[in-house]
């Protein structure tokens, strides 16, 4: 088997149930390759942290198994699993220096003091904190404390690294910096990593693959591009990124199969639906182009019904965020959001302006309506 495709961490039918409650994790199967960074992405209560804690040995599965490099470690105690863990709370010892915090795990394993020091210094150099070894944790910023926690998890050279919402206590700019830092260290060491987060940007940015979790199971597992551009369910499409969501019915007009919204505009789709079937149609705001009616000619809204993949409406809001401008366009009773680069000088739509929205068939995501 090709080494790059060989499974290193396997979760097989992993389940965790509590008496009187729905399973926190249910029949979860996941296969992670060596050296890969996989994010478990989901909202609170979806089972992602419970899954990580079962991998770490901190929670015992009700059923199923955890296998690392072909070895079933389900019954192996946490301290014998050779796994590094960074939690949301860094839990640094306030009375110890940074260097001693990093070396602590080695010392309780009985490693000689001089070797502990050398390994701790190397671990700090990995996270660019070698000059801070003599400080106490209270003398460090939040981002620096997070780096210390990462160095402590890496110092004993674990075979697997687990990160449980490690950036949630940092401000937005620092999160971005530390996100890049974690990815750099992970790739430099080539260490297999499981990264738990509820933040879509984090997952899309740092991951080789993403497991989107819902209700204790994996809703979709794939590359960031596949998760974002090819969602396999209505849940994943709604959860990852932003979507315009429409309810439509399948119809045939002039020999063409269309999905027609409640406000009369139509979508062509590569999916086949039976006539009259209710369908959820989703399009990302940045896939909605917008044309401004500069001649002030009134375009009848019924024109959009004759032209598929287009709609005519009035701008109700224009929200400038620096990098993009987000237009909220009313078409009948529907508000459609179009997001364009703020640098696109061709698009300058004022509130109240009539505009035409257009989209491409390949950007239309369709799912059977409940």
Can you put this structure into words, describing what you see?
With 370 residues, the chain is of the alpha+beta class. The protein has 9 helices and 20 strands. The protein has a 6-stranded mixed beta sheet with strand order 6-7-8-3-9-10, with helices on both faces. Strand 17 and strand 18 form a beta hairpin. Helix 2 packs parallel to helix 4, helix 3 crosses helix 4 and helix 4 runs parallel beside helix 5. The chain is elongated, with a radius of gyration of 26 Å. The model has no long low-confidence stretch (mean pLDDT 90).
Topology:
Elements: E1 7-16, E2 25-33, E3 37-41, H1 48-56, E4 63-68, E5 71-72, E6 83-86, H2 98-107, H3 113-126, H4 142-154, E7 160-164, H5 172-189, E8 192-197, H6 200-206, E9 209-214, E10 217-222, H7 224-229, H8 234-239, E11 244-253, E12 256-261, E13 266-267, E14 278-283, E15 289-292, H9 302-306, E16 310-320, E17 324-331, E18 334-341, E19 354-358, E20 365-368
Helix pairs in contact: 2-3, 2-4, 3-4, 4-5
């Amino acid at each position: 088997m090709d080494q790059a495709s060989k499974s290193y961490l396997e979760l097989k039918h992993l389940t965790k149930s509590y008496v009187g409650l729905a399973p926190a994790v249910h029949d979860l199967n996941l296969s992670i390759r060596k050296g890969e960074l996989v994010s478990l992405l989901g909202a609170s209560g979806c089972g992602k942290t419970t899954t990580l804690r079962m991998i770490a040995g901190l929670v015992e599965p009700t059923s199923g198994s955890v296998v690392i490099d072909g070895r079933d470690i389900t019954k192996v105690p946490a301290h014998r699993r050779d796994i590094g863990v960074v939690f949301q709370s860094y839990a640094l010892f306030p009375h110890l220096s940074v260097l001693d915090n990093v070396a602590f795990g080695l010392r309780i394993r009985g490693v000689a003091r001089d070797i502990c020091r050398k390994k701790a210094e190397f671990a700090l150099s990995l996270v660019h904190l070698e000059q801070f070894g003599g400080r106490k944790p209270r003398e460090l910023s939040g981002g620096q404390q997070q780096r210390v926690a990462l160095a402590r998890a890496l110092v004993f050279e674990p075979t697997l690294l687990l990160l449980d919402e490690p950036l949630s206590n940092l401000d937005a700019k620092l999160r971005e910096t530390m996100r890049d830092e974690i990815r750099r260290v992970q790739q430099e060491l080539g260490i297999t990593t499981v990264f738990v987060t509820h933040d879509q940007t984090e997952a899309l940015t740092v991951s080789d693959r993403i497991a989107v979790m819902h209700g204790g199971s994996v809703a979709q597992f794939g590359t960031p591009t596949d998760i974002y551009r090819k969602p396999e369910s209505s849940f994943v499409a709604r959860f990852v990124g932003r979507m315009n969501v429409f309810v439509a019915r399948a119809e045939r007009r002039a020999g063409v199969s269309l999905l027609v919204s409640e406000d009369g505009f139509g979508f062509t789709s590569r999916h086949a639906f039976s006539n009259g079937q209710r369908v959820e149609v989703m399009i990302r705001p940045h896939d909605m182009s917008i044309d401004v009616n500069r001649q002030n000619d009134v375009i009848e809204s019924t024109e959009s019904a004759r032209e598929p993949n287009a709609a005519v409406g009035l701008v109700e809001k224009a929200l400038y965020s620096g990098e993009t401008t987000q237009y909220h366009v009313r078409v009948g009773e529907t508000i459609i959001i179009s997001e364009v680069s703020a640098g696109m000088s061709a698009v300058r739509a004022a509130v109240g302006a009539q505009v035409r929205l257009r989209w491409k068939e390949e950007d239309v995501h369709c799912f059977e309506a409940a």
